[in-house]
């Protein structure tokens, strides 16, 4: 069904400078995204999923960030591009959808002009053509009366409409790669479903690849093809979506899935993964980073590595083989 | 054009969504002007100040076009120090026998114009440098901010006096540029601090992901969001610049001879007899300066409150 590789991330590590010292936020992540594929990156807050996305689209402040590894996008090594070369790609071949639609829209610029921005940069359309394209985009993302909305300011729209505008901006130039950073977090559930359907439609139309960053496993189950679970800046498990939901292996994945309330659970209590992701200042990269949160299980010795245990199913370390939940012991 | 479109597109909509009409009629950031209006209505002193300022500015600007150059340059010793009301001189005459009222209008025009030009220079330079330092940060920021720190501690009145004395063939434009050298540092600091916080906002990042260049992000995305503090800052520095120019002219280092200034008019009071017995010579320009500066300050406060929701009265 897919196979044409759009984006390949190879051994990428990102370190942030904090008080003069570099701390690793993402450690040796490798991923591949194909055309027509939705790759979901899942993890709790602080697991490095947004950092990975901002690395791909080059939003880091390079004065305080160290990025190593390779990111190949349609044959271009994007970590080696200059700012100008990168600007040619951004907004044209890749687009980003932000989490908070109000913050991501400039409060003082009309909706139409904000959508037009990436057309201004990347296309040589005439004003009239741009205008027409803006209306077409607004129509495509399901906004009624595009002519009117194009003249409004962000504060005049509802949250769901703003998120549609953000999507319209991201797809204005029919990008091959769409990075969606928690696109539905700020929306209520009914709007979430609409937005996800919209993303799917757009993807089908442009044969784009989508990187979907989320902590909502319901969203993942609905739209993703492949899922990468991140913890403390590493991928701990990666698998096609059915495999991951039906046959999760890594203790972290299993804990996350267990923490999801289901309609047929007998207990009133929700499962809680104890503790939190360690601060990047306290991470010992030579140990099993998830072990402190499941102290009853024997940790891996040294730093566990990612292994392919079944075709396309990667799991980090060996401790998962013996892992049982506390109440199963 | 937008209005025509508005009516063509489904007129039935107008009834259901009334705010469209507002959106089409009010062009620039509608809420800002409404806020300013509300603040003025709450603050009667500022409202009165604004009216007085408007009347004074308009009178000065329009009247000054009709004052012949000779009225402020001709010397007529016989009419020296005429009391107000005599021989048709409403405010009397000065040491050279010139009509005080005409002098006041001509001086006010010069002083206001010069203060305005200095403000423009200070704001333009300050906004550009502030945007650059705040947006790019890093080494650029550190270097420029240290230069400004140094510049601000310099005793600028003295340096201006020295420059004015050593520059040959100097006219009002030279004065404007010399004062302008010291007019941009405060604005730069203010703009920089605001840009530092604005450039971390998501809309700047979003604009970046659209492929916009740094230049476009600075001037198209961030600059409009600074509009309110720029209005406040330019209003208040304008009042300050009137003060600086009149001070220099009072000391004799401001506008050259032949170009009357409020400061030179006030300096008539340096003569002890004039100071003691002929208040009508120096009092009008003094009152004018005080009214203008205090009025601008009140109006500036209104703008400041309109720009900062926490300080609002209305």
From TrEMBL, chain A:
Localization per Swiss-Prot or TrEMBL: Cell membrane
Alphabetical UniProt keywords: ATP-binding, Cell membrane, Membrane, Nucleotide-binding, Transport
SMART domains linked to this entry: AAA
Keyword Secreted among UniProt keywords: no
Topology of the protein relative to the lipid bilayer: Peripheral membrane protein
Superkingdom to which the source organism belongs: Bacteria
Keyword flag Mitochondrion: no
Sequence ranges assigned to domain ABC transporter in this UniProt record: 9-257
Entry's Gene Ontology cellular component terms: plasma membrane
Single GO MF descriptor: ATP hydrolysis activity
One Pfam family this sequence matches: ABC_tran
GO biological process entries: peptide transport
NCBIfam families according to UniProt: oligo_HPY
Family: Belongs to the ABC transporter superfamily.
PANTHER family: DIPEPTIDE TRANSPORT ATP-BINDING PROTEIN DPPD (PTHR43297:SF2), OLIGOPEPTIDE TRANSPORT ATP-BINDING PROTEIN APPD (PTHR43297)
Name used for this protein in its record: ABC transporter ATP-binding protein
TrEMBL record, chain B:
Keywords from the named record: Cell membrane, Membrane, Transmembrane, Transmembrane helix, Transport
InterPro entries: BP-dependent_transpt_permease, MetI-like, MetI-like_sf, OppC_N
Protein name, entry field: ABC transporter permease
GO biological processes: transmembrane transport
Subcellular location: Cell membrane
Stored CDD domains: TM_PBP2
Residue ranges occupied by any ABC transmembrane type-1 domain in the UniProt entry: 108-300
Protein's UniProt keywords contain Transcription regulation: no
Entry's family note: Belongs to the binding-protein-dependent transport system permease family.
Taxonomic lineage: Bacteria, Bacillati, Bacillota, Bacilli, Lactobacillales
Any one cellular-component term (Gene Ontology): plasma membrane
A Pfam family matched in the record: BPD_transp_1
UniProt-listed Gene3D superfamilies: MetI-like
Major location (coarse): membrane
